[in-house]
Amino acid sequence: MATQNLSEQEQIRRNSLDELRRRGIDPYPAPLFPVTGHSDEIKKQFEADGGEQREVAVAGRIMSRRIMGKASFMELQDANGRIQVYVSRDEICPGEDKDLYNVVFKKLLDIGDFVGIEGFVFRTQTGEISVHAKKLTVLSKSLRVLPIVKRQNGVTYDAFDDPELRYRRRYVDLVVNEGVKDIFIKRTKVYNSMREYFNTAGYMEVETPILQSIPGGAAARPFITHHNALDIPLYLRIADELYLKRLIVGGFDGVYEFSKNFRNEGMDRTHNPEFTCMEIYVAYKDYNWMMDFTEKMLEKICLDVNGTTKVKVGDNEIDFKAPYRRVTMIDAIKEHTGIDITGMDEEQLRGVCKDLGIEVDKSMGKGKLIDEIFGEKCEGNYIQPTFIIDYPIEMSPLTKRHRDNPELTERFELMVNGKELANAYSELNDPIDQYERFVEQMRLGEKGDDEAMIIDKDFIRALEYGMPPTSGMGIGMDRLVMLMTGQTTIQEVLFFPQMRPEKAE
Fold first, then answer.
1. How far does Cα 109 stand from its chain's mean position?
2. What is the DSSP string of 86-137?
3. pLDDT tens digit string along 44-54?
4. What CA–CA distance (Å, rounded) separates 372 from 365?
5. Residue 133's beta-bridge partner residues?
6. Helix/strand/coil (H, E, C) string of 259-315?
7. Does the structure show a pLDDT above 60 at 1?
8. CA dist., res. 293 & res. 278, Å (int)
9. Do domains 3-146 and 180-493 have the same CATH topology?
10. pLDDT, tens digit, for every residue of 418-440?
11. Architecture of domain 180-493
12. Quick one: pLDDT band at residue 250, thresholds 50, 70, 90?
């Protein structure tokens, strides 16, 4: 960065950097610093030991300083929290040369710099557990000024709260805003809990291609790229379903994948073009078994992450304790519109949409029309976890026909807080039926539906070798984390959500 574009504070910090070097202090030293304790653990251990003195080495960012002549206090922030450090001139400079305190500590170090402290734990006269510094090591010089967020009597001043800046500079957000890091710690706990649930059941985590020659397994618009060596177009996957089913054909009883998916669609509070989905497929099961399996899984995750089955999201308290209510798609539409769509053809459904004031276009077939009715009039009403089951066949090209009604399919979607969280089927394993469903999808594509599926001939071939009865379930991990952490926007649970390009400074 050109120095003429620097603020006064940034220029001062660069001057301090140069001065450190002139004094023979490397502002970015290579050797490891032997950390022996973290802020939270040190405080707990000190209380447990009844105040027994303990030698420690801590490292972190300077977040505040109070300089008082020959002695000072500073607050150090590490990965686990903050701890106070007492710095005495004569302790860190036992000889004649006092420059490490008088010049380096007082004048050349700034808030945001990383330092290492070696010393012992004690309690100050005001009762605060602190580290008494005997040695101070400069570990990294910060050249930009951190926002100083002040908190007093429960009121926050100078908050770093602009969403645009927070998401774009997540590294700053994590440092200065309390609670942000906790969201992402809980995110990892959600993944760990789910993995534990599947592994205990005996199912195997796998990886499948992200670059696919045919984007399949969902109805969505893909991102397209080009492979130069093969001179072919490739697509970033929209789902991993068809590859996981190939593994069931190959003889695995249960496989799952945490899949990064990409859909070239709009961005809003619940959609990011790059997102994580978990999909699991289990042989010899059906969608009824999968409903039981899913609700028990979510109850476990909520308990593991939050210590309770209840979580507050906005104004709603959601209880993940199993079992969950089950409502058919047709009954849901009947309940919220008063209209029974059973047996209706495409034109009749268009008429229903018109009567309900739902905008539709010519490219939409029966499945899309029903989906629009449900999405507009029903979905938002399901706050507590509810399984919507038995979808019309046109909405579910990869799903087995219902055992009691061939117009329907054995499918469920789990609705929570007015949004879809999980989607599951008794998987279609009849290759001839599957081919005919793909052909119907192609017709929709010719009508202008850019989300219609392409025929995957290799997948049909796999089914022709025989796939056992199978149930599969996919769950949006980002949405699940939103629920488990009480967040209302997907950007809050992604470290680095997609943003518009930043304007040049």
1. 36
2. EEEHHHH--SS--HIIIIIIIII--TT-EEEEEEEEEE-TTS-EEEEEEEEE
3. 999 988 888 89
4. 11
5. 119
6. EEEECCCCCECCECCEEEEEEEEEECCCHHHHHHHHHHHHHHHHHHHHCCCEEEECC
7. no
8. 14
9. no
10. 999 999 999 999 999 999 988 88
11. 2-Layer Sandwich (3.30)
12. very high
Helix (H, G, I), strand (E, B) or coil at 437: helix
| Helices 346-356 + 366-377 axis angle, to 10 | 20
* Residues 113, 114, 118, 121, CA torsion sign: positive
Per the CB < 8 A criterion, the answer to whether 259 and 279 are in contact is: yes
Distance CA 402, CA 342 (A): 14
Q: Which of 148-157, 312-321, 389-398 has the lowest mean pLDDT?
A: 148-157
Instruction: State yes or no: pLDDT of 447 exceeds 80.
Output: no
Q: In the Cβ-directed half-sphere of 194, how many Cα atoms lie within 13 Å?
A: 24
Strand, helix or coil for residue 418:
coil
The answer for residues whose C-beta is within 8 angstroms of residue 472's C-beta and 6 or more apart is: 241, 244, 245, 279, 280, 281, 282, 290, 424, 425, 427
At position 345, the amino acid (one-letter code) is D
From its phi and psi, is residue 399 left (phi > 0), alpha (psi between -120 and 50) or beta? beta
CA separation for the pair 207, 288 (Å, rounded): 27
pLDDT at 4: 63
CATH class (in words) of the domain with range 3-146:
mainly beta
pLDDT value of position 397: 77
Q: What is the C-alpha separation between 433 and 104, in angstroms, rounded?
A: 76
Torsion 73-74-79-81 (CA) sign: positive
Q: Residue 442: what pLDDT?
A: 80
User: What count of other Cβ atoms lies within 10 Å of the Cβ of residue 418?
Assistant: 13
Q: Which of 158, 164, 163, 162 is nearest to 146 (CA)?
A: 158
Residue 414's closest CA among 476, 372, 369? Answer: 476
pLDDT tens-digit map of 218-241: 878 999 999 999 999 999 999 999
Task: Indicate the length of the chain as a whole number.
Answer: 505
Rounded CA-CA distance 239/214 in Å is: 11
pLDDT tens profile 155-211: 777 789 999 999 999 999 999 998 999 999 999 999 999 999 999 999 999 999 999
What's at 164, amino acid-wise?
E
Domain ranges across the chain: 3-146, 180-493
| pTM for this entry | 0.91
Is the previous residue joined to 323 through a cis bond, with omega within 30 degrees of 0? Answer: yes
**DSSP-based three-state secondary structure for 37:** coil
**Long-range Cβ contacts of 501-504 (<8 Å, 24+ apart):** 502/168
